[in-house]
Structures are given as structure tokens and as C-alpha cells.
Amino acid sequence: MAFLDIAAVTKSFGAQGVLKDVNLSIERGEFVVFVGPSGCGKSTLLRIITGLETVTSGTISIEGEVMNDVEPARRGTAMVFQSYALYPHMTTFQNVSFSLRMAHRARDVIVDKVQKAAAILQLDKLLERKPGQLSGGQKQRVAIGRAIVREPRVFLFDEPLSNLDAELRVQMRAELMELHRRLGTTMIYVTHDQVEAMTLADKMVVMHAGRVQQAGKPLDLYDDPDNRFVAGFVGSPKMNFLPARVQSSGPNALGLAGVGGAGEATLPFTAPPGLAGPVEIGLRPERMRPLPPGAPPPPNSIVLEGQVTLVEELGSESYVHMVLADGTPVTLRAGRDETVEGPSLRVAADPRHALLFGPDGERIRSQGGSKR
Ligand SMILES: Nc1ncnc2c1ncn2[C@@H]1O[C@H](COP(=O)(O)OP(=O)(O)OP(=O)(O)O)[C@@H](O)[C@H]1O
Questions:
Q1: Which residues have C-beta atoms less than 6 Å from ligand 1?
Q2: Is 110 found in the same domain as 8?
Q3: Does residue 214 share a domain with residue 309?
Q4: How are strands ordered across the β-sheet holding 344-349?
């Protein structure tokens, strides 16, 4: 059994189903990130793990022990909230030591634990300050310090960096990764920011509408998404989705027509038996290349033609937004040395990089061994 096991968990608030048959195994020491759009249920799942909410059905187990009826303080979890939730009238020392003082721990034990946490979090010089005298990042460190001194089995973070500015977020992200490396404790982290999820997670859990859509290593989800939601959610700029129709099907050759409204394409793909009708091709923006005017496309490529609507210059590269004749929006990432001349632009993509999705949004995989 996994270190932390979430089995068939559902949660409803009145008539509203918020979590639907959530199953997840978390190993000891893993850094797990729950990510998904606002309202998908990630905070609720975190609150269920720590005991601030009950399940409607299903079980939460930690180290083989069912936690459903165990009170929050006895679960060995410590939560860090987005709002920091510090006591404003207490100093850093008092805030960090609060749970130890409530547990009537000996004074020298308290001082020792607070000093160790303060050293890890660089709070040593701020122990006598009150929250009003601390920056956002420092307050966040105090909140983390308060969790560390409890020596939990599992740290739970609910969007802890969302009140910080972009630069500080990046810095705190690095600090959290270092903290995880030092402590080796299991951490579960909630965010709606997929970049944050990609950079932090050993295991990334993408949620949507109360269900786990896919869980795995961030790059596996990026390269090999199970469905259109995960494909579109992970990655920035987002994956492009091009409507197409199945025209012919053979071993390692799937003929598509109406690609992006007009073009044809042959994918090196063995379709499942009976595949017919409308599908969607998924292509990442970095898998498309702009074609200089008049230049022939590489053999067998998927070629798209459209009107450039916006070029975002980012210095090292640019994001080129275009719209195809049928109205399908397409974004490509172009390098500095690539010529992008509007208003009309042709782009080419290697069909080996195309993913295929059915009308139900599920990924259609090539039959017979290949990942695609
Ligand atoms: N105590 C509650 N009573 C009723 N509905 C609730 C309660 N808590 C959460 N919800 C609802 O459950 C759904 C999921 O909320 P949750 O906070 O888990 O989402 P989330 O994915 O964490 O979103 P966000 O990123 O916006 O925090 C939302 O529709 C929310 O309105």
C-alpha cells in the first residue's frame, strides 16, 4: 500500500458534487502537486486529507491507517495556507512556536526547534518581529516555519505563493524545492498555475470538474497526455487543436482530410479498428515551423496557412498567433532567426509530433506498441 492512499473519494456540498471517485497513491517523500482550474476541487481534496473536511464516501489512509475519523491534530499533517494565517499580535518566534507551546513542550525543546526552523528558512534575524513588520515572502516563511516545527508526516500547501509577486514566487519555489530536498518529507501542493506545477512536482495530478484527469511525471503528462483537457492545460503557450476527418486508414498510415478546414495529412499512426469521422490533431507550438515565402515544405509535413493576428516578441523567441481559413486559432513559437512575414503565413509540422483526440476528448493512441 502507498504511503498516502486516496481511494474512491467523493465529496458533495448539498446537491453539488465537488469530488467524483478520486483515486490516488502518493509515495513517501514525493512532492505531489494538485493542479487544475479554479473550482475543480483541489483545495477540497487537500482539506479532506488534513481533516478540515469530511468525505462523502471513500477513504483516506496514511501509512495504512484509515484517517476518515481521526481528528486533524492527530493525522501528522501540517497545512500552509495562502493567507499565511499568522497571529498579528505575535512575534515570529511566538507564531512559529505556537503549536509547541499549546502542547506544553519544554522551553529548551521549543527554542531548539524554532532555531532550527529559523535557520533553514533564514528567519534568524526576524524572530522578534510581528507580521506587520514582515514582507510577503517573509510572512510565508513564518507560516512554513510553523508547519516545520510540528515535524509532520505530510506538508500540505494551499496556493502558498499566490500573494507574492512574480520574482518572489520564482525564488520561493526554489526555496521550497530545497526545503523538500533537505527534509525529505512528503509534500502536497495545490496551485492553479501549471508552470508552478511542472517545476515543483515529482508527481503532477491534473484535476478538472472534480476528477483526476491524469497523474504522473510532469514531462510524461506534457508528452503523452491522456486527453484533450490535460493536453491543453499543460504547456504554455497551449497546444493547438486542429479539426480533421479520417479519410483512410492503414498500417502506420492514417489519412486525414479537412485539417484545420482545408489541408490533408498522413500521420505515421496505426488507427484503432473502425476509427472514422471527426477527430482533432494536437500540435505543440514549438513543433511548428514558419515557412519562408515560396519555400517548399519538408516532405510529408502538415502544412497550414493562415493570417497572422499577433506577434508577441519575447526577445529570445516570439509567439506568433494566426487564424486559419476555417477560424481555427494556431500559435507557434518562432526563433529569432526565423522569418515570420504576415499578413499571410504558412507553417509546417512533422506529423510524427501530432497527437490525435476523438470527439469525446479522449486521446486516440496508435495501435501496436508505439506511444503515439
Ligand atoms: N464549504 C463549502 N460549501 C459549499 N461549496 C463549497 C465549499 N467549499 C468549496 N465549495 C465548492 O466546491 C467547489 C470546489 O472548490 P475548491 O475550493 O476545492 O476548488 P479549487 O480547485 O481549490 O479552486 P480555487 O483554485 O479557486 O481555490 C467550488 O465550486 C466551491 O464553490
A1: 13, 18, 36, 38-44, 192
A2: yes
A3: no
A4: 288-291, 344-349, 302-313, 317-324, 329-335
How far apart are the C-alpha atoms of 190 and 359, rounded to whole Å?
A: 30
> Are residue 161 and residue 284 in the same domain, yes or no?
no
Place of cell 496551485: 191
The tens digit of pLDDT for each residue in 244-276 reads 999 999 999 999 999 987 788 999 999 999 999
How much distance in Å is there from the Cα of 41 to the middle of ligand 1? Answer: 6
User: Does residue 63 sit in the same domain as residue 200?
Assistant: yes
Residue nearest to ligand 1 atom 28, measured at CA: 39
Overall pTM surpassing 0.95 (yes/no): no
Kindly report, residue by residue over 118-131, the tens digit of the pLDDT. 988 889 999 999 99
What atom of ligand 1 comes closest to residue 40's alpha carbon?
21
Are 142 and 248 in the same domain? Answer: no
What's the 271 CA to ligand 1 centre distance in angstroms? 40
Q: How far is CA 291 from the centre of its chain?
A: 33
- For residue range 79-102, list pLDDT tens digits in order: 998 888 899 999 999 999 999 999
Number of independent structural domains in the chain: 2
User: How far is 67 from 249, CA to CA, in rounded Å?
Assistant: 51
Neighbouring residues of 131: CB distance < 8 A, sequence distance ≥ 6: 84, 86, 87, 88, 90, 95, 139, 142
Q: Best mutation site among 13, 38, 206, 208 for ligand 1, i.e. most ligand atoms within 8 A of its Cβ? A: 13
Give the domain extent around 95. Answer: 4-233
ipTM at complex level? 0.95
